[in-house]
Amino acid sequence: MTGLLVDLDGVLWFSESAHKDAFKKTLNGVLQNAAELVDQTWEFGESTEKYIERLLRLDDVNFLQSNLDELVALKRKYAAEITDIPLNSPLINSLSVLKDTGVSVSLVSSSSPSNVQKFLNYSNLHNFFDCVIDSSMTDAPKPDPSCYSLAMSKLGLAPRNCIVIEDSEAGKTAAMSAGVSQVLIFPTDFLDQQFTHTLMSALSRANQE
User: Fold this and answer.
1) Are 4 and 165 in contact (CB under 8 A)?
2) Which of these CATH numbers, 1.10.150, 1.10.8, 3.40.50, 3.30.70, describes 16-81?
3) What percent of the chain has a predicted confidence (pLDDT) above 90?
4) Whose C-alpha in 5, 59, 98, 119 is 20 to 30 A from the C-alpha of 202?
């Protein structure tokens, strides 16, 4: 049996602008030029807490852990209020085709449970994934490999029989550290728009190992 382990943000849906807007609203008045700083520094792959902490230190803002916790909660509140985030429908359709052939498909994310649930509600894919991993299930976010290790353990799959789809260096590092050698990067490895063909080729290589 082979498995596709798929990241959420930037892969299954295009939530970059939603996250950026939420960070900007959260940090407005806390940091100087918060909007500009977020535009210059934010990218997928860093946890909300680590990112906010990094910006506070970068802007020489004194803070307590309680202040940081409040900002993280506020960012997640703002993010939850944003609707109409575009889904990656071509990829989701291809995953559905492969799932019908017996391939295991799982969602593996360092996002908060609320963000993952928001995606599942919005996409109506509650019963689609064989396994769903969110940040509450592991002790550390990507690039820590624990999310991928946990997913493979739950599925009973060896790393050699898995393909990971990621969009960030942190995600790629997490997957490879968990022993997965085949990591497809979105959108780089999907520029020809032949989503099903690209995935089937990767799965064929996995079956040969």
Assistant:
1) yes
2) 1.10.150
3) 86
4) 119
Q: 3-class DSSP state for residue 183? A: strand
pTM of the model: 0.90
What pLDDT shows up at residue 206?
A: 80
DSSP notation for 125-177: -TTT-SEEE-GGGSSS-TTSTHHHHHHHHHHT--GGGEEEEESSHHHHHHHHH
**How does pLDDT run across 76-131, given as a tens digit for each residue?**
999 989 888 999 999 999 999 999 999 999 999 999 898 999 999 999 999 999 99
CATH fit for domain 3-14+85-208, picks 2.60.40.10, 3.10.20.90, 3.70.10.10, 3.40.50.1000: 3.40.50.1000
Per-residue model confidence (pLDDT) at position 82 = 87
Q: Which of 181, 184, 188 is nearest to 206 (CA)?
A: 181
